[in-house]
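Typical record is below.
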Amino acid sequence: MYYKKFGSFLFAIWFLIFSHQVSAQCGGVLEPGFKFLTSSRGCAPFTVNLETLYLSSVPGTVYFINWGDGTPEQSVTQVNAIGVGISHVYPNASVDCGYNLTIDASNACNPRGSVVEINTQVIVWTRDVISINPQEFRVCQGFATNLTFTDNSQWNCFPRATRENNDPRWIQWIYGTGPIANQIANVQVNSIFPGGYPYVNPAPNTNPIYPVLAPGQLSLPITVPATTVAEIGDEFVVTLKNWNQCNAYDNNLLDGNAFNPLNGDLINGDNTPQVITGRILIVPSPQPT
């Protein structure tokens, strides 16, 4: 009887020591936590960095990261007492304006599937898809007309209630940007005969215009005079430029001036604009039959 009790006592001591060693190896129940080391939103290609901060994590804890963009799952093993730093490049923006990121974890005391997953978002934007309406005005020879072009662009991730890319845009209209040799003569822009081409609005803060809060902006009115048969095929080209926060005209808005790009290039700004053209084309007048 004495030996049985002594054996049970030894077993209890061994079990406590073993349990303590196992607990020390795995740290206890994992409770998820993390922080972004960069912003969680940006423009493609966008690099995101974050750090895991799981409570009770220990060296040997393995993290499984699904970046949400179709790339293979990434696994990273913790080697310190804090967590792991992880990084990923999103080369493109998604049609849903971002990605759902998940992180799972496991170690000796916490098999995979037993720990609450981290679910968060990384928002990735890109440049706008710009268009001009109409792409071509066809004006019959011999007839005069007044017309305007419309910025018919599809802004990236706008409008949206979430993951929205709502920051104001810069746009610019430039008139008479085609070859001078076959440009329609005597065209007026905003009731003015330009002294030369290309021509821009002389009003302040219109080259570019900022802040633009939505597509649909109109060009200045353009007046095409009655033309001759010799002018059939002549054209008048109008260019539209667009910048959003992914290709900002001015990379520093904190100075309160949105019109002084850091590189000093007042024509194209700090980043290359999106560009599209529309034109007015003189076509033959229909003949009665």
Observations:
- Confidence is low (pLDDT under 50) at residues 1-24.
- Helices lie at 2-26.
